[in-house]
Amino acid sequence: MRRLILGEVKKDAAEYLGVCENDEVVVRRINQAQERLLNRAVDPAGSWQRFQICHGTTCLVLPRQVRHVKAFWRCSQPGLVLSEWFEALGYWNGGVGMVEDGCDGNRLIDQGTVCSFDNVVSSDTDPRRIQVVATNPADAGKQITLRYIDAYGNRVYTEIDGVVQEGERLTLSTTGTLTASNVATNGLYHVVKAMTNYPVRLYSYSTTLGVQVAQIALYEPSETVPIYRAVKVPGLDGGCGVHHHHDAQTTEEECPRPQPITLAVRLQHVPALQDNDPLVIGNLYALLLMIRGQELRRRNEPALAQEAEAQAVAEIDGEIAAYLGDGNSPVIRTPDRETWGGAVFNPIGGGYGYW
């Protein structure tokens, strides 16, 4: 396993494509190949990562690179990762997963996707607008389109490129540009941004006070349609509290605030545009085979394309098998530590358990 950058792949990809290395199609095909390989159900080597988030509230918006959460730990204790349908369960531990229902930070519930890490919070006495700010003069004059609900509960429509469309287009400047209308609480729901050289910031702006109140987004230069995975951890703003291990109660040391949690996540494709941009897929041969498969499909040779793509998949599967090796003991994950399987070795308990 290795970590590739875009520039290391371009020369070989250009040879496969029969074009010059600086042809813009080379970068497109490399990105398309990586995205297809990352859309498989099996995790390729290098496609998962651990990182820690410190936050004092129950709702978290994850970085752009995250596709989904595989596991998480709070105060060194593993928790349950639950789908967004968990809250639709028709009995007591569905709903909002309250702390008094035993959810003191030990459940991570999917909340779907959002377009910013925070949103507008407004009121009749303190209406808010959104302010967009270019962080560098090099991006002045470029445009961003915000789709939002106004203070009257209506979707905003304006004339864009001579046609009435959903949303409002704003021109970037370093001094900031405001939306024409006040924005409802949680009103921002979609963003389309031009490619920029530097990041772009969005703020909730108080029209009463005439100041920025809070930053709600920071968009990277290559983000054109921002989308992020959101999760909720009920009880995250509380202390570590009492944890149960078998029949014994042990009180863990209080976590510092804001609460840190550790996440193991599956990474997703993020476009690589500059030579130094990293790729998630580190298998050069798999990328080249997938590029070849894509080109064969464009030439209407599906049988040869399928063969090349199957070879790319075999490369990825072989790499992950070599990376994991055969020394790891498999662990069966269950909702609690009291669940045991017949004649199944439990490396945590150090023996065999039975139902």
Global geometry: globular
End-to-end separation in angstroms reads 40 Å
In which range does the helix fraction lie?
10-25%
Helix/strand structural class: alpha+beta
Largest sheet: 4 strands, antiparallel
- Global Rg: 24 Å
- List how many beta strands DSSP finds: 21
Q: What is the H/E string? A: HHEEEEEEEEEEEEEEEEEEEHHEE
Count of helix runs: 4
Low-confidence stretches: 241-252
**Proportion of residues in extended strands:** 25-35%
The pLDDT mean sits at: 86
Q: What's the domain count? A: 4
Strand order of the largest sheet: 1-19-3-4
Task: Explain how this protein is built.
There is one protein chain. The protein has 355 residues and is an alpha+beta fold. The protein has 4 domains: 90 residues, no CATH class; 107 residues, no CATH class; 99 residues, no CATH class; 31 residues, no CATH class. The chain is built from 4 helices and 21 strands. The radius of gyration is 24 Å and the shape is globular. The protein starts with 5 loop residues before the first helix and ends with a strand.
Describe, in short, the structure shown.
The protein is of the alpha+beta class. Helices cover about 20% and strands about 35% of the residues.
